[in-house]
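From the methods appendix. Each design record in this collection lists the tokenized structure first, followed by the designed amino acid sequence. Records were kept in a plain field format so they could be parsed without special tools. The example shown here is representative of the layout used throughout.

RECORD:
FOLD TOKENS (183 positions):
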């Protein structure tokens, strides 16, 4: 009878360990799904911004009496051929937006152009979206990283090869900037 109770006790302990492991694994999967969702939202918004800036080139040329060959928003042309992470694309688009704004300030006729104003409004709306998506992404990364660094989930993370993820601003959990940021 003692032998049977020992085996039963062992089976219960193994089942409890398996339940805890399955629960931790499921939590990681939930975070991974949310991270992928946030990345897709960021990607979509960045593409929208890129397209808006790309459309503005012809509008700027047409309303500013610039030559057809003028190098308007030259940075956007360079971005087309590069393979960039979302983080790098976001940084590059800010440079292009600054150039876009300089045209707005330099050429008064652009401030009266309806198409240009629509693009400017859409860019401002996309700025609000990207800010919200960045915050959402970083919040998820914080929770994921906490899970990956706490016991007993750190054991499961090591077994499954889950690594600490970098925040959207390119920093790790200690606030150090890393060069290995990939979305």
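DESIGN:
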């Amino acid at each position: 009878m003692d032998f049977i109770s020992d085996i039963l006790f062992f089976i219960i302990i193994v089942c409890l360990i398996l339940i805890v492991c399955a629960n931790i694994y499921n939590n990681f999967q939930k975070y991974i799904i949310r991270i992928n969702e946030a990345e897709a939202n960021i990607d979509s918004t960045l593409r929208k911004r890129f397209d808006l800036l790309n459309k503005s080139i012809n509008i700027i040329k047409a309303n500013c009496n610039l030559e057809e060959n003028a190098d308007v928003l030259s940075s956007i042309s360079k971005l087309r051929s590069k393979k960039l992470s979302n983080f790098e694309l976001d940084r590059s688009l800010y440079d292009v937006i600054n150039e876009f704004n300089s045209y707005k300030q330099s050429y008064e006729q652009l401030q009266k152009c309806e198409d240009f104003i629509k693009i400017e409004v859409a860019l401002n709306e996309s700025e609000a979206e990207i800010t919200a998506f960045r915050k959402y992404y970083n919040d998820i990364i914080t929770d994921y990283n906490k899970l990956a660094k706490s016991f007993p989930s750190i054991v499961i993370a090591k077994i499954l090869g889950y690594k600490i993820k970098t925040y959207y601003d390119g920093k790790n959990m200690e606030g150090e900037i890393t060069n290995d940021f990939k979305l």
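APPENDIX NOTE: Confidence is low (pLDDT under 50) at residues 177-183.
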